[in-house]
Amino acid sequence: DQQVKQNSPSLSVQEGRISILNCDYTNSMFDYFLWYKKYPAEGPTFLISISSIKDKNEDGRFTVFLNKSAKHLSLHIVPSQPGDSAVYFCAASIYGKLTFGQGTILTVHP
Amino acid sequence: NAGVTQTPKFQVLKTGQSMTLQCAQDMNHEYMSWYRQDPGMGLRLIHYSVGAGITDQGEVPNGYNVSRSTTEDFPLRLLSAAPSQTSVYFCASSPLAGNTEAFFGQGTRLTVV
Questions:
Q1: Any residues with CB less than 8 A from the CB of A53 and at least 6 apart, and which?
Q2: How confident is the prediction along chain B (113 residues), in pLDDT tens digits per residue?
Q3: Mean pLDDT (whole number) for A5-18
Q4: Could A96 and B96 be called an inter-chain contact, meaning their C-beta atoms sit closer than 8 Å?
């Protein structure tokens, strides 16, 4: 039973447009949510996070939205750049134990 | 500042062989963990530790052992490698259990033939 799901394996976006990556979860005990970015042959790197008591967190071009009633979070990247092309993982935490989604491959075309 | 260092980067094992994947961090983090990444599966937690001398199982612990004798090191042992353990392994550390901005190593790509 996958507690964190990213239902879109891939997303293709034009440079300058918005990228929206989605993530759904089932466990209402998760208290912290994160997005990680991963390039090939590298480890994941932290991108942005949000506490379960908030509904939005913004950091430059990246904004994470949390809808607790729908158990859904999303990552918005505006504007998208070719260097954003990578695999994006959402993760949810209970007491520091992270559960990851399957990942979404984002491709930003020049 | 090295961060989280994993060795080796690549390894090929024969079925039944044993080996240890090394992980070291120089950030004095209390919380360390091991994940495996398989296609379409995301990263799955194998084992984790909240401090020296304390370890616990994650989602997929079978076939793996860990120990935490120091704050810096958290080795992962495969006692008898199986083809199902072919994967990319990542070690991560974070300051506290509950502070979940984990820092990851570069990964170890393991193939069991």
A1: none
A2: 679 999 999 999 999 999 999 999 999 999 999 999 998 888 999 999 989 999 999 999 999 999 999 999 999 999 999 999 999 999 999 887 555 688 999 999 999 99
A3: 96
A4: yes
- Taking an 8 Å cut-off on Cβ atoms, the answer to whether A96 and B41 are in contact is no
A100 at interface of B, judged by CB pairs closer than 8 A: yes
Q: How far apart are alpha carbons A65 and B18 in whole angstroms?
A: 44
**Phi/psi zone of residue B16: left (φ > 0), alpha (ψ -120 to 50 degrees), beta?**
left
From B74, B78, B54, B75, select the one nearest B64 (Cα to Cα): B78
Q: Verify whether the Cβ–Cβ distance B94 to A96 is below 8 Å.
A: yes
Element (H, E) at B31: strand B31-38
